[in-house]
Structures are given as structure tokens and as C-alpha cells.
Amino acid sequence: MGIFFLPEPVAFTKVLHNPYLIVIIARANKKLVSSLTAHVLDRYDSEKPSAYVYDLAVLTSFQQKRIGKKLMATLNEYCSTKGFQEVFVQAETNDLQAVNFYRSTPLSNELQATHFTYLFSKINPENGEI
After folding, report:
1. How do the domains of the chain map onto residue ranges?
2. So which residues are the signal peptide here (predicted)?
């Protein structure tokens, strides 16, 4: 996992009140050990929305305990019952841990693609500052 910075309180509150964001967490002994965030995407080609998994993280000491798979299963069940068309996620080809994780879940399809990004500010990887 890369460097993680806590968001500013105003930004965090705004995100948590976004009706197009799904957040699922796992706790152990009242401690947050895993989280999944997904964005709800309305589609022009379907009346059913899609869900895009933006992030799934499990603390290292809690990995290999099926927590990530349970979060994905929870998301898939939620989206299925709410009438979503699909749930999809991207994993970088060289991130073998993520690729192997998603391949170990009951997926419907795997597609190889190239990802393009348009950045509007540069972030210093050493300190996370813009």
C-alpha cells in the first residue's frame, strides 16, 4: 500500500454524505481492520447503475483471513439486491497481490485494459504535498 493521508475534516464529511459512495468496513476488537469504498455510477446506456470499487484495503496483520473476500461478497450482495447492473474493479497488472486476490473471488469476467490518467496537479511522492 502507498502512503495514506487522513483527509481534512470538511472533505471527509462531504465524502461520507455522498449518496453515490458505498463504504463497507470490517472491525476486530473495535478496531478498523479493513475498508472498501465503491462509487455508484449512473449509466446512459442502462437504467441500472454500476458500482466501481475504488479502494479495498486490509491491515497486513489481518490479511489472508478472508476479510477482503467478505467485503467484496457484501458489496456484490448489496448491489445485486439494489438492482445494479455490475460491480467492477481495476487492478494494475504488476500488482500481483491485488490481481490474484480478485481472481480468487467469484468474478464474471476479466478484461485486460490500459489505463490513462490526466493529472491537474503534481504530488510529491516523498511527502505527499502538491
Report:
1. 9-103
2. none
The segments of the chain whose pLDDT lies below 70 read 1-6, 128, 130
CATH of domain 9-103: 3.40.630.30
Burial 64-79 (b: 16+ CB within 10 A, else e): eeebbeebbeebbeeb
Kindly report, residue by residue over 96-122, the tens digit of the pLDDT: 999 999 999 999 999 999 888 888 877
Q: Where do we find the cell 485486460?
A: 112
Q: Which distant-in-sequence residues (6+ apart) come within 8 Å of 34 by Cβ?
A: 25, 26, 56, 57, 58, 59, 62, 67, 68, 71
Q: For 2-35, give one letter per residue: b (16+ CB within 10 A) or e.
A: eeeeeeeeeeeeeeeeeeeebebebeeeeeebbb
Separation of alpha carbons 42 and 122, rounded Å: 29
Cell of 72: 467484496
- Give CA–CA dist 3/39, Å, rounded: 21
Name the β-bridge partners of 27. 32
**Cα 93–Cα 33–Cα 67 angle in degrees, nearest 5:** 60
